[in-house]
Amino acid sequence: MLILVRHGRTEANAGGLLQGRLDLPLDELGRAQAAAVGEVLSGAGRVVCSPLLRTRQTAEALGLPVTVDERWVELDYGEWDGQPLGSLPREAWATWRADIGFTPPGGESLVTLGARVREACADLCDEAAEHDVVVVSHVSPIKAAAAWALGTSDDITWRLFLSPASITRVVTAGPAPSLHAFNDTAHLAALAP
Length: 193
Hints:
By secondary structure, the chain is of the alpha/beta class. It is built from six helices and six strands.
């Protein structure tokens, strides 16, 4: 099974900022979330993660060797990195939501992200059919992986919600990938306020 984990919370997540390629650590809650992920997924056969610190910290909580794969890095928001989501011009926001080929200034499009994530998924597909492969990544790559599993376009990105430290499961054995769980947060119940 391919098990996709969004990293634990950071201060930027808590503050509603576009985090993209900003390389921030987990905050206190994020470290607790990573520990909870580690408790339920420690028996995995392999762990892969994005190169960014927040994913590496989450992946390390599994207590297994970690392989870094650049293809799982978050969408590049370019000049919008670190900005509050609500500060984006309305026109730009509307265009971005309507056109998956739209590229934020100096960033990358959802189409470009989707292509690299689909390649990364395909490369792990056979291995994940044999044993669990955990990928610790970010909201946009995991949404792209869900689109891959569903055999659909990246335009579903804006219709999906993914919580920090959530778990998404894709079965890769069989004729086509199959999405078995999305945004599972049951393991985080003890951390709720």
